[in-house]
Amino acid sequence: MKESVAIITIAALVLMFVSLAFWAAGNKDFALVCSNLGTIILLVALVWSTRSKSGDKD
To answer: Where are the transmembrane segments (predicted)?
Structure first.
């Protein structure tokens, strides 16, 4: 795993933790936004890391 993908993954996991904290505090709207943003960032990081590994197979 490249360093940039690792940093992006850590940032997404921090967003997930922030989401959990805001959910526990009762601010459900911001928790939902943080969790959705974290999920999207994780998906983009996954696609980006698998894209760079596969390459063209011609």
So the answer is: 5-24, 30-48
Spatial separation of the C-alpha atoms in residues 11 and 56, rounded to whole Å: 29
∠ CA(10), CA(11), CA(16), 5° rounding? Answer: 95
Report the 10 Å Cβ neighbour count for 47: 10
pLDDT tens-place string over residues 18-42: 999 999 999 999 999 999 999 999 9
| DSSP classification of residue 31 | H
- Tally of domains in the chain: 1
Quote the domain boundaries for residue 34.
3-51
The answer to whether residue 57 is domain-embedded is no
Higher pLDDT, 17 or 57: 17
